[in-house]
Amino acid sequence: MIRLCEKKDEESIYQIINDAAKAYQGIIPEDRYHEPYMSKAKLVQEIEDGVIFWGFEDQGDLCGVMGIQDKGEVALIRHAYIRTAQRQGGIGSKLLTHISKHTDKPILIGTWEAATWAISFYVKNGFELVPTDVKRSLLQKYWDVPERQIETSVVLASSGYAKGIYSLKRE
């Protein structure tokens, strides 16, 4: 069952993110990986900054989460993580489909360039990679990430929006 996460779910969200993010260890740049991958304080800050988390619940336990953040002209998919033990079961696709129905705006997703499994997942679900020069502009405009992360990330746009997304570049 997919449901909106609540304050009481913060610990579960924290655990899911940090369990699933272990997949990045040895894959993303060493200087960008740390444990925990996301601190509790950072999670709370993300929620305060408008990230709304949806969760996939199985037998009363959250096993996957995905956030969406309204950024005016676009919506960002944020922090899409499935517990390691529940991966490859369609939970991510169900969450992405559900969240996508909650906005009529173009959806952007930023992820690590080296996380080829994540890129493949989003492409399989209808998202398209944006060109590198556009990626940089979008990451600077809609995300608050350091230069090193911009260098090592990609951005994907919801189907049909990838070509039109160029107009969203910072002037």
Q: What percent of the residues sit in helical stretches (DSSP H or I)?
A: 25-40%
CATH architecture label name: 3-Layer(aba) Sandwich
Structural class: alpha+beta
CATH superfamily: Gcn5-related N-acetyltransferase (GNAT)
The dominant shape is globular
Protein name: GNAT family N-acetyltransferase
Keywords: Acyltransferase, Transferase
EC number: 2.3.1.-
InterPro entries: Acyl_CoA_acyltransferase, GNAT_dom
How does this structure look, described?
This protein has a seven-stranded mixed β-sheet, with helices on both faces. It starts with a strand and ends in a 14-residue tail after the last strand. It has helices at residues 10-20, 40-48, 91-100, 116-124, 132-142, 147-151, and strands at residues 2-4, 52-58, 61-70, 75-82, 107-112, 128-129, 153-157. Helices cover 32% and strands 24% of the residues. It contains six helices and seven strands; from the N terminus they run E-H-H-E-E-E-H-E-H-E-H-H-E. The mean pLDDT is 92. The protein has one domain: Gcn5-related N-acetyltransferase (GNAT) (Aminopeptidase). By secondary structure, it is an alpha+beta fold. It is globular and about 45 Å long. One of its GO terms (molecular function) is acyltransferase activity. Keywords: Acyltransferase, Transferase. This is GNAT family N-acetyltransferase. InterPro entries: Acyl_CoA_acyltransferase (IPR016181), GNAT_dom (IPR000182). Residues 1-144 form the N-acetyltransferase domain.
